# Entry
Amino acid sequence: MAKKVTIKDLAKAAGVSVTTVSQILNGKGARFSQATQDRVLALKKELNYVPDFNARNLILHSSKTIGVLVPNIGNPFFSSFARGIQAVCREKEYMPLIFSANHEVELERYYLSRLVERSVDGLIIASASITTTTIDEILKPNAIPYLLFDQNQTDAGDRVQVDDYQGGKLAAEHLLALGHRKISMYLPTNPTDNVLHRLAGFKETLQAAGVAFGEDNVVHTALTKRGGYEGTAAILAQQPTAIFCANDELAIGLYRGLAERGVRVPQDLSVIGFDDIDLDEYVTPALTTIHQPINQLGEEAAHLLFKRMATKGELATQVTRMPVELVVRQSTAAVEAR
Amino acid sequence: MAKKVTIKDLAKAAGVSVTTVSQILNGKGARFSQATQDRVLALKKELNYVPDFNARNLILHSSKTIGVLVPNIGNPFFSSFARGIQAVCREKEYMPLIFSANHEVELERYYLSRLVERSVDGLIIASASITTTTIDEILKPNAIPYLLFDQNQTDAGDRVQVDDYQGGKLAAEHLLALGHRKISMYLPTNPTDNVLHRLAGFKETLQAAGVAFGEDNVVHTALTKRGGYEGTAAILAQQPTAIFCANDELAIGLYRGLAERGVRVPQDLSVIGFDDIDLDEYVTPALTTIHQPINQLGEEAAHLLFKRMATKGELATQVTRMPVELVVRQSTAAVEAR
# Structure
């Protein structure tokens, strides 16, 4: 197998010194003849010489990479989010290194440590289980700029959020307008702050309209399709006419549990999700949901991080909160229609 | 903001020289007192000192990373595949750098070049549009070990495949056994070799059973949910009683097109997919498909690549072909049942 082409190979092929090649490739070749410059550049292309990035890193103390930690890349929400980050990184000529921690705290720490070792220039952490302790232990001592997304409350750091409270409120208003009064909500087992805001907006709007909503109207389950499926019996036992799911994956899992029991959506039961993943238009019936601007959230997260990386510590904490909106599809209907 | 903790900081805190710290951390500290060793190790932990990986890379000519290029991380097939790779990398203490080229040839070349610059130790290329030219231009001159997956035919290199021909055959046999004789197939616009093998197995099995299957029984569309949705009118115009989709995403897109037209699956039309992504159990009706061992494919790809990296050029080309199987769910039914 061939060996990686080095700057020495290139210098030898061009019949010039390594220093000459280095200067020409770094745009400082004006003092050499045009013929020499052209020959070196042509040979660089011909031999496919690729400069050693590790040498450059060591000198510049930058790897031109940002680390991205997501809880589950298998959730289309996070693949869209990552796509937004990827687009901005490409403009800036950075590489995004994306890791899925599969909701495991230990794996999260592992990847964070490896990313720090590799001198990432910054981190976007969209992992729900990261703790203040982990941030204090791993990130702060190494002075790595980071941004939190969709996160537990920690005391510090830039963040990108959506208006989760408003999302819960919109879901409640929609169901109230359709005449629903017996309403349940699907929550993850250990709800993160953003989900608790959804719950608060939902609950307070229902209660303000005189609709009872307490612990008896909530079912906790794993925040996955499987979780939504496995909680079906428990949530149907509450005899709701409508169910608000903390995310779309839960709703899609619930669909399966309902189909197996012959419960029709929306004729027998209205279902509303949260996120607006691309799948929502493909399931039957198409899912009514609260739209998050997923791709833009990724872009904004990357923009704020690059700003932080450029200014180091001199910048006040950046918080961007983006709006959500109700998207009405076929999974919700008026109670009267039953 | 704090500065990254350096070996100098650690040496200063411990009251010893940088050389002493370096030797203790590299397991060569036996000649120092136990108290000194303990103090350095305790301070390493306390200060969260992380060794500079770039320096190590430069010396060892290895970044302990492998690059992974997938066409679309938003397809659950590739997120499962990536999970298999991730698991093996973790055992080997390598970092997998995963990039989604979104089916764009130019983006693929971009990421490949950046990965080579960063001295990845090897590459797994699951991107359908990679060409022999790209491999010859970017990978071979830099002597990067690589493995192809799910790929166009190129003349060289290790690869992991499934028995696509057998998959097509199983799909055909299943539909024939249910009495179908008017059968269509959904194909991507530019089918890759693996998809052409599925087609060959399907077509030859139908023809051997005396069922006509030619260009009039095929519709080409984009290999995405949207493609499956947008091709619905064209494929229904062929008046099939059953449709074999080249992958599950196409089938899920087709479901939407059928639902909008009131065509019931499987009562009016049987649908069979290919891949067995986790979503198949969640759509209604649950999708009959050809199962690929997706997670194991990722693991095997990583194992072969590590073997190649360990032995350099002295190993014959490695090809692993893994079996597929039919998974019957609710989307296929006997023609007689109509």
Remarks:
- Chain B touches chain A through 64 residues (CB under 8 Å).
- Chain B is about 45% helix and 15% strand.
- Chain B has three domains: 7-51, 64-160+294-321, 164-292+326-337.
